[in-house]
Amino acid sequence: MKHNNLKNKTILLINTGSTHKRHVMKRLKQLELKVIALNTEKNWAQPYVDEWIITNNYDHTQAMRDLDLFIQTHPEIKIDGVITFWEDDVLLTSKIVDKYGFIGIPLSIAQEVRNKLSFRNFCANNNLPFPKFKSIKNDADLNEVVKNFKFPLVIKPAFGSQSNYVVKVTNKQELKNTYNYIKDTLSTTIESALNDGTEVFIEEYIEGDEVDVDILLQNGKVKFAVVSDNFEKTFDEFFIDMGQSAPSSLSYDTQQKLIEMCEDTLEKLGIYNGCIHYEAKATKNGPFPIEVNLRLGGDYVWSYIKDAWDVDLIENAVRIALGDLIKFPKKMEPKKYVIGWDLHPDESGILAELDISDEFEQLPFLEDLTMYKQVGEAVLVPPEATETIGWLTVSGENFLDAQDNLQHALDQLSFKVVKFDTESALGKTVRKNRFATATFNKQMLMKQVKLAKFRQLDRDNLKNIKIGLACNLNELSIDPIGIDLTNTAKSVEKLLTDAKYKIEMLNVNDFNMFINQLKPENDIDLILNLSKTLNNSTFLGTQIPTFFESFNIPYVGSNTSTNILTKDKIKFKKILQYHDIPTPDWDYIYTTDDIVNEELEYPLIVKPANQDYSFGITNESVVRTPAELKKQIKNILTNFNCPVLVEEFIDGDEMRVSIVGNGDDLQILPISRTIFDNLLGTYEHIYTYDAKWGKNPVYNNLIEQYPVKNINKKLETLITEIALDTYNITKTKDFACIEFRIDENNNPYVIEIDPNPSLNPNAELNKVAKVAEIKYIDLIEELILTAITRYRNTSSINTI
What we know:
The chain is an alpha+beta fold. 33% of the residues lie in helices and 24% in strands. The protein contains 25 helices and 35 strands. It has an eight-stranded antiparallel sheet with strand order 15-14-9-10-13-16-20-18. The longest helix has 19 residues, at 480-498.
């Protein structure tokens, strides 16, 4: 038995990647390595990872800081090397190589290679073949290309992978249409590798046979290099790897020239160690470089190289990173002829059927089968995106035999993708070019997939969906509100995690990471929005649902329009007034020159018109003279820089009505009450900021009733009906809490509505739920199911 000298070695893995990299993680585990993953979250790879460093991989400064901290706080752990199998993190890996002296590719080289435009310039300056190329920034550049370049052309981003946004054009009009489409839709949502840059360039198309050259390079010596063929590369004007075969069917001399060009390139770049995936073309004028990937090739490259040559690229890439000497025979012969094949539909749509026969699993030439999609999921092909249902590899005694075996395997495997056809006029019109509705179709398709998934859910199978918890998480906060928001997030996370839900925390405080987490590849089905602030602003916090809608992710709660309406106390008052909802008489002030309606009767209460959490509400907020009024208005205008709401002060009890549901299916939870009578002396009968968030013991004298006691049944019915009217006219969704003041004659007045009440276990909603004998987990599940039911009954995510 061969001794495993990798056992118990510690490798730092930069980014686990998506579930497409499961074969990588499995292999690392089989090698008995200790894996430390530097990643944005603990994810599907937990069974394969020994230690996690949770950070923002896109923020290299933060990632390096978190790595430093891990090393400092874990002196017992010796990291032996670093590696990545994920294109997005090639540059971060090189930064770590430079700082810690690990074996790998220096940052200066990685930057030049990973930017395809820079690599073209490098080839031009180092006597390497290259096509005519030009960076494109505007229409003037396009016009210059038309005058000086020969069609066909290829337009592509300088960064990126998987051929996303790489398009072949054959004339001026196609060039213009394609450039405009790419310029308008170039997005890290579709291609996360574009986080490193969104520059676009054009080059003349190279006629020839496209190949991959997979290379193992150690100490400046090429230890292993083989050529594999790409075939069925194009998808109309796009470039997709449909199939690859190993070994190459090209002549020995052609293969040697390709390998020599690769060696020449790597030597001139100064790359001495690594597993390199070099894409090139064999033309009548010799080999041409396409691009150099400074990591193992994606998906089934490892599989077909191992099957064809019995060389494990994952293991050897790790050995190189750890400084373990690798050796291969000088002359190697292929063990098998292997073809890898991607399962691509002809058009984007929803996977409706997938049938794999019993015979398929027994095929003697079947080497591997990996499926990425399940029935009911969207599959997006260009121009919407570059996805595949899965892939398989088969083998044969020679290339023709392998081709026959591939066809036989494909005959035993069938799938049906239902093309998305929107009912809108936009979807039915004839498009002027391939890109005209690509973005629209993708968005509509993703909506339909999520809605279709919801229609199959009930309370018993809610755990089949992935829930994102949008929150304001700050472990270091000393502000009482920040602490409360953090504790809320942690409480709900623990509650749902303990209940075996699939959870992902979306920390709005780390905005860049938050946006990255909303990308489709995260597969978040529904968001439970616990967040209240954005950039420390509660008013900006009202707009957070806009981001969910932008990424077509369903969410619990009201939309931005309702949030803004209810947060803006002046607009809210106008709506109440228009609908004859009882509310204290009021006026508003924008400047110190404005005059308050003289018909308002003292005492008055003065509030910031768009603040939350009782900001600006103090004991001095209740005023009894014009002088006090003027002083308090000036205080609000100066300190909060916002309009001022002035309303007649109702000196009575506060009552609250909490509602869960939509339409005709509404639950009214038990009413609660606060009695202020025991606030003696100069303390006004209001919830000040200090009462809610301070430590003044005088507020311990507040009498809080859960549920309200000794309430007049007529009053109970009245405030319930008014609460429902307020809920409906503000178009609130899923849940809310409506706050009333009750005067001495038992007249109720609406003060405000909170369309996103706190889900802290000690907050109002859970308190009244307890009275109704609803457990905390049942309350949260009810809110989730309420939102799902709402989405079931609609064909749109962002219009409800």
